[in-house]
Amino acid sequence: MMLRALLLCLLALVTLPAQAHKPSDSYLTLDADGAEISGRWDIALRDLDFVLQLDGDGDGALTWDEVRSRHGEIARYALARLELSAAGEPCTLAAGAQQVDHHTDGAYTVLSLRATCPRPGRLEIGYRLFAEVDPQHRGLVQLRHYGHATSAIFGPDNARQSFTLDAPDRAGQLLDYGRLGVWHIWVGFDHIMFLLSLLLPAVVAPRGTSTPPPFSAVCTDAVKVVTAFTVAHSVTLALSSLHLVELPTRLVESVIAASVVLAALNNLFPLLGGRRAPVAFAFGLVHGFGFAGVLAGLGLPQHAMVLSLLGFNLGVELGQLAIVAIFLPFAFLIRETRFYSRLAWSGSALAALLALGWLAERALDVQVFPA
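and the corresponding structure tokens:
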């Protein structure tokens, strides 16, 4: 029964929707100057459409007229879920003009904000956007004040946070982005499937031999693959986040999908031979650009971006190591069973088919899976 449950969990993982790679985020940037606060709030139109049904004619495509005609409703919905207060007293908060901007994952409405706080000095933020419909939604907040930038991540488990406006909390920022990195790798199913597809052959006898490797050799092989992937995506995550190298989003996401196809097919046909670590490095470079997409919307100044980048990358590695630490011993224990051979074959086949669908959606802009 336990093995059957684990197989069902794997099948559920590889049949999740194709767009699960980019979780729901909004980007709130606030500039504090004494009692006055100004800012902008970028909210994904796809998320607003889900709760407010902005697509009036139901044709599946939002137009500027459809969005503009609902600006008042969008502002009321958003402001009802954002609270600013100082020393326990609420700040007056109002929304100004709205625009539309494009992030790496689609179109966003941009709300301009202005607030006045009665007692400046310590700002408290309450964030509940989409809390009633999407427990996975996160609000990425940047608070700029006196030449400093402080970042935080809001979600159902930390919907209220407070900030001192005279000095940024560097340790808190590092931990916040570490948690975001862990979360991102755990919901980044294409990244997980690529890594696990490369690790599936590590526990079995190499092609042309009949003797399975000992656990020490399995760990050595896995370390080579994981290290190659880690080094590669860390480099391009840094380069992309610091705006030193940039690639088109569609190209990046398409190549990520192609990497999953190749890694999964390699478990069915001998495509890569023993070159899994070099392949992990080569495609890891592209996965790094994918990881950078979640940070791109914040527009952090470079001195704040470096700390956020460090925390996010450490979180990605911790999340990745947790997955490997669970998978590898389990795979080693059952590697000589018929269940494992079936699991490896069927899981790889399903992963390849799903990734082919992702590739078609991302490269050709066609809908393969239901939204």
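(Above: one complete record from the training split.) The two ends are 33 Å apart (CA to CA).
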